[in-house]
Amino acid sequence: MGRVETDPWCSSGHLLPSGDLLSTGGNKMGEKAVRLLKKDDPVPKFVDRKDALGSGHWYASNCILEDGGAVIIGGRDSYTYDYIPPSADFESNSKNLPFLEQTTTPAFGPGLHIENNLYPFVYLLPDGNVFIFANDRAISFNPQTGATVKEYPVLEGGSRNYPPSGQSALLPLRLTADNKPVTAEVVVCGGNKPDAFQNVDPRYTQNRVFAPAFYDCNRIIVTADNPAWQKEQDMPSPRTMGDLLQLPNGQFLLINGAKKGTSGWDDAEDPNLTPTVYMPENEMGNRFRELRPTNIPRMYHSSSSVLPDGKILVAGSNCHQFYTYDGPYPTELRVEKFSPHYLDPKFKKDRPVITVGATDKLLKYGQQFKVTFTIASNPKLVDGDVIVTLLHPPFTTHGWSQNQRMLICGIVKFDRNVITAAAPASGKLAPPGYYMLFVSHRNIPSKGVWVQVGP
After folding, report:
1. Which superkingdom does the taxonomy of this entry point to (predicted)?
2. 345-454 under CATH 1.10.3720.10, yes or no
């Protein structure tokens, strides 16, 4: 890969429409840097650009926009956002976003940071504006001007962003073949009390208290005229620092994290070892299902990713300032693959298999495309038995999957084993780039096929 010249520690990132990876911001000399990794480079290497950004961004979040460019938002002592165009060839720029300063818990003194609003949860909305949730509040804003478009109610109960580190996701966007208006809904789960970090981190206290993380989840329809938070079913166990991953079938997976404490060096205990499926469309009371637990703690600095075969790659966990291999929660270098419930061998005969050569790989906005598949059991299918989903691969770090986005495509025609579906209407729904396409039969997904979506 070659040497990275700038410091990407606790940085952010996203994919360009070309599929190239852009790493943004970081610590110290890396806070204004970007690093480009081209997917077609025969000798992969990061190309660093120092001082490319107009502001420093450490613990920031990226949001891809309708043109394939992205905004890099916030971070420690940063109340601004920068825009990077789709080509990643740009001059430094920066715009103020007062909301970031308004949601920052004041520091106690030089070098002492509480914040509670780092790695804010950000999502591109169907109208092209950006939804941002930080600490316990949310707005949507115009990414061209920075102007606030809508203010949302406070989410009572605690702090949800780093370091209390709850989990959040944009629920799948359900499209129609005739391009009806799309509803966007966001869920926020877990986190901890606003003072949880200062009561456990040794920089603030000698009487450390590992506060229990939250069980609760809350949902809000962000496109509603009068949006309001709705209490969701509680998770089966409390969780901070967990990943909330979008699965190929429209469900989610809660994995990794801890039951007590917060993000930060040595600031959590009681690892949450039990992966849990979240099924937001089920009836209340039947939305969570616990799966087989691991025996490897995955807390601070752990990560996970959904693979095209439907498995989950799980790695990392270093709760300490340096690599530490003794004592509680040693630095973890092992990597695991986790097979979710839908990969149980008993479902093999009912699992769709996409016929790659007879499936469109280039999806144009607003146009129809075809997906060909087979199911070994040859079931008699009725409306709703099969869905076609597009999953944008996220940049997952510190319990936050940036630009994770799923679209359930509108089906135009179903002819035996060939689906004619409608591609998303525009970049406001699906920013241009590479997506994993899946076919799911009664919540059992196929392996994914890489497709490119764009104008």
Report:
1. Eukaryota
2. no
